[in-house]
Amino acid sequence: MSIVPQAVTPPQEWKQLYVAALLEKDSSRVPLLIADAERAIVLRARQLFGTPENNLREGEALDDALHTLRTLRGCLATREQSVRAARAGSAQLLN
Fold it and tell me: Checking phi first, is residue 58 left (phi over 0); if not, alpha (psi -120 to 50) or beta?
């Protein structure tokens, strides 16, 4: 029995979405791009799981990419918390 994903995407699509998330300069768009890249990576991983070929290198690249995206998401969250804290501190100083 083979597992076939609902949608078949080109193998390189996840890479394009991953790079787009990493290189985006507009920080307000990054979370959406991260989510798009994560979906494509998970879909590709499922595609690889359902094939008999040995795709160890791509599988490792997928794992690395997911880890990097999660780290980037965490950095963005930390940055946003710092900005909020700084604004709150500035507001208190003005009062």
Answer: alpha
Give the whole-angstrom CA distance, residue 84 versus residue 35. Answer: 23
Question: pTM for this one?
Answer: 0.76
Question: Contact at 8 Å (CB) between 41 and 62?
Answer: yes
Q: What is the pLDDT of residues 13-60, one digit of tens each?
A: 999 999 999 999 999 999 999 999 999 999 999 999 888 787 889 999
Place of tokens 């208190």: 92
Nearest-angstrom CA–CA distance, 25 and 33: 11
Burial of 7 (0-12, 13-18, 19+ CB in 10 A): exposed
Degrees (nearest 5) of the Cα angle 61, 67, 18? Answer: 60
pLDDT band at 90 (very low <50, low <70, confident <90, very high): low
At 2, give phi and psi (nearest 5°).
-110, 150
